[in-house]
Amino acid sequence: MIAYGVFTSRREQNRQRYRSDKFYRGTFAILIVVLVAQLFVVAAAAELFVAEKRIEPETRAIESRRRELASEEERYAPLLRKLRILTSLRSLIVNRTPSSRLISNIEEGFSANEQVGLIELKLSNRFDPNDPNSKDDFTILITGAIKAASRNPTAVLTDFTKTLEERLPKGANVGIVRNAVVQGAEAFVPFDLRIHYVSK
Amino acid sequence: MMQFLSSYPWRYYLKTFFRKGRTVRGVLLVKEDRVSILSPVGGKLVFSGGLRELKGAPSLTNSSIAGSDTAFRRKALANRAVNHLFEWIFVVDIPEVQIHQIDSQRYGSTRDLTSRRVTELVPSVLKADLADWELVNSKLEPVEQDTTPVCILWGLPKSVIKNLEGWSRQLGSVVSAILPLPLVLLEQSITLSPTGFNVVLTSNHTVIALSQDGEIRLITRVDPIKRLGASQIDATMGSFGDTFPEIAQLPARFISSDLSSAELANETKDFSVPVVSTSPSEFLDLEEIIQGYRVAPLEAFALYRALCLVPPNPHH
Q1: The whole model's pTM is what?
Q2: A185 SS3 class
Q3: What confidence tens digit (pLDDT) does each residue in A70-124 have?
Q4: ipTM given for this complex
Q5: Cβ of B161 and A5 within 8 Å?
Q6: Sheet with A116-125, side-by-side order of all strands
Q7: Is A10 on the interface with B (CB under 8 A)?
Q8: Pair A103, A185 in one domain
Q9: Is B176–A9 a contact, with Cβ atoms under 8 angstroms apart?
Q10: Which CATH class is domain B2-14+21-92+160-180+286-309?
């Protein structure tokens, strides 16, 4: 036997080296894989394109609606701001004890004690409207009078004070500023009470 | 890259995506006056001669076009499965083939046969740079395999190699080897007569080799017998016989793919040594191996020998 490739050129010998069926078949398989992958990519791109075309009117409508809503949001921004504040104050408003209720409770106290009469009632509230966390802080100053002819006015005032504490919401502090003390022959003995109530 | 893609056998691999391809080999004898082919058709080797006149046939002198619409492709290559897995072995006979005997000690260890090296080995060599060179040992095997004392240097013009490779490339096939016809015939002759004179007669050369146990001891190339005459060849053989008298006593075997047995016998009748003319009858199994061999039995068998001489592609 002589050598394979005898009297063939270097170029032909190089061809012999790579022109094997295995090499060609491998290359062909790679090319097929690449081709199929490209077909898949093209098919996927076409499908996406068709889908995009199909939902384009819907997309446009949604975009238009979105713009509309944005302008509406802008228009109602002050109102929304107020709503947000109100929402934050909601619990405060719901649980708030109105001053009218305190006065009503005081009136009930006077009704329950016939010997005690009301001369003046001053109500003040230290609520800060600029502070969202501010609470009602009521101070009520009552000036009244007790009939001197009856039993001891001091005892009557003490009973009246207890009645008020029962009638007023829990936490209300009732204090005697000026006791009902008989000083002469007046028919009525004056007294001053101070009620302090902070809403919870 | 572009060349690779342009010559890629798309159609073949589309057809055979799920099955393995099979390498097929064919031998083409290309001479100035004759082109013959031997390759499998339907699992059997089929020989066809007289193809030179067909348009698109390979040529030694110019690069012919082996397109798909040529007569050679349609007639000679029909059913021969010539595709990119096809491997050609060309057997050529041209006057420019050079044969020189080399002393392996002179050849040394260097294996690179440049034209300069060839000129150093054989100062009388002609146009060393225009030829490609191959060195074989005395058993006509690669010298790298076994370096024998006698080596034989063969030279073939680069233009011939270029033409044949170009022709094969047009068919998308590969060239396994290009063998000079004298080399094939000499191997065939030595196989039949391992010891004695082996004389190869072709249209362009007469190769005289003296072999012993299948190894060549002396070899020379002279002009063809028709030009030189039998007496000159007889004289050369006589000088060889002086060197190895014990071997020279044996009958000389003559072989030729050009001459018929009768022509060969006629040419050798005046030789001073006993002559054995190689005849097709010596190849008993020829009929079983090759279909269509009767056209030119020795030529068909020479192509068959060439097919057996070249080993399978080591890269496959």
Answers
A1: 0.66
A2: coil
A3: 999 999 999 999 998 888 877 777 777 788 999 999 999 999 988 899 999 999 9
A4: 0.83
A5: no
A6: A116-125, A137-147, A188-198, A173-178
A7: no
A8: yes
A9: no
A10: alpha beta
